[in-house]
Design a protein that fits this description.
By secondary structure, the protein is an alpha/beta fold. Helix content is about 40%, strand content about 15%. A six-stranded parallel beta sheet has the order 5-4-1-6-7-8, with helices on both faces. Helix 1 crosses helix 4 and helix 3 packs across helix 4. The longest helix is centred in the middle third of the chain and has 15 residues. The radius of gyration is 17 Å and the shape is globular. The termini are close together.
Length: about 220
């Protein structure tokens, strides 16, 4: 039986797409660049704020990233204010978390969102006592798909790799789970599709959060 579940944040626990869309488009506007449609951010997001801005600029034609520093600075400032813009948990997530807690499992988050914003989102949506550990992007650890975040969680919670399920919605998450050597579950309610999750070797793919429970006893 598994002892813990590690969750990705954006696109897995919470639908943060509007917050990323709003903040990035506002940041692009400071450089006189046009906005992108919201669905574009399903593919811009997932690898941290710097990659989000890089992909947004390239899509606007700034292939040399001339505006990167100024837009990145603007984004960091804007995102502090808008990181909770219309952020909501996905249907079925609160029920899943409740059931996992009742079964005595440890819960953790491993996100490429900056550490302070990871804490902001999780604690405002789910409270301060739901998760045992919140791991966001910081200078001390390499961002996903490096295994650093997962390994940090395993160490802090005194867990072995076989004790853990790792769930996320993107290729980055599947690669993270594989690099850490843990059982990896793809979430179809997030930002990406089944093909991406399959091609990146998800051990299992689920359509609804509560389907995760079938893998707890394995």
């Amino acid at each position: 039986m598994k002892k813990a579940v590690i969750f990705d944040l954006d696109g897995t626990l919470t639908n943060t797409l509007k917050s990323l869309w709003k903040s990035t488009n506002m940041a692009l506007a400071t450089a006189g660049l046009p906005p992108h449609e919201i669905d574009s951010y399903k593919y811009f997001a997932g690898n941290g704020a710097k990659e989000l801005i890089r992909k947004s600029l390239i899509a606007d034609g700034d292939t040399e990233l001339v505006h990167f520093d100024s837009v990145m600075e603007a984004y960091n400032s804007i995102f502090e204010e808008y990181c909770m813009y219309e952020v909501k948990p996905y249907d079925g997530i609160p029920e899943l978390l409740k059931e996992l807690k009742e079964r005595g499992l440890h819960l953790a988050v491993n996100s490429n969102k900056p550490q302070p914003r990871t804490v902001d989102v999780v604690e405002q949506i789910f409270g301060k006592d739901t998760f045992d550990l919140l791991v966001g992007q910081c200078e001390e650890r390499k961002r996903k798909p490096a295994p650093d975040g997962v390994n940090y969680i395993l160490d802090k919670l005194h867990l072995n790799k076989e004790d853990v399920l790792y769930i996320g919605d993107t290729c980055t998450d599947m690669q993270t789970g594989k690099s850490a050597g843990v059982f990896t579950v793809g979430a179809l309610w997030g930002f990406r599709d089944r093909q991406e999750l399959t091609e990146n070797h998800a051990d299992a793919i689920i359509e609804k959060p509560l389907e995760l429970l079938q893998y707890i006893d394995q």
